[in-house]
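1st attempt posting a full record on here, be nice pls
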Amino acid sequence: MEIEFSQQAKLPTKFGNFLIQSCREIVGNINHEHLIVFTERFSETPMVRVHSECLTGDVFGSLKCDCGGELALAMEQIARVSDLQGGMLIYLRQEGRGIGLFNKVNAYALQDQGYDTIQANEVLGFKSDQRDYGIVGEIFKHFNIKQIELLTNNPKKIASMEQFVKVKRSSIIVKSNCHNEKYLRVKREKMGHLLEEESCE
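the predicted structure (as tokens):
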């Protein structure tokens, strides 16, 4: 794996002012370009969100998942602590838990037939979660980060980050809706996510 970092640039947003830097991960003949959004300065324990790309949720506002809501909430929270703790959002280009956009849409079609997210992935020949977080360790090295406050509800993500840095977890909860109730239940009951059960509104 080869890694290349771009120059840094300013990114004013509706949440606050950030810097951005891209990280290019080259594996064989395949390039993955990830994005790092971060505050100008951060403490020894920055607030960090490792967010996997979800085009439907992050860009188009899909109600079938909680991804777009988590992304916005993470940006808000990191901006809120920018003067003291600071932090970063690492945006990984691992659409559909690593199966890609084309296969994710096919998985959506299976979900429309009644399959849950895990079953749909398995019917298509994939694991429930195919993401790899190795590049995150390289990003932490690049920024000389040794410990973090991680915004996540996913125990597996915590375990993955603990390979690279010391981790303190903070939950990131967005309101559920009638379209993602089953999705969140699968996260909670089958994937062990640290979520409270909510009724559909």
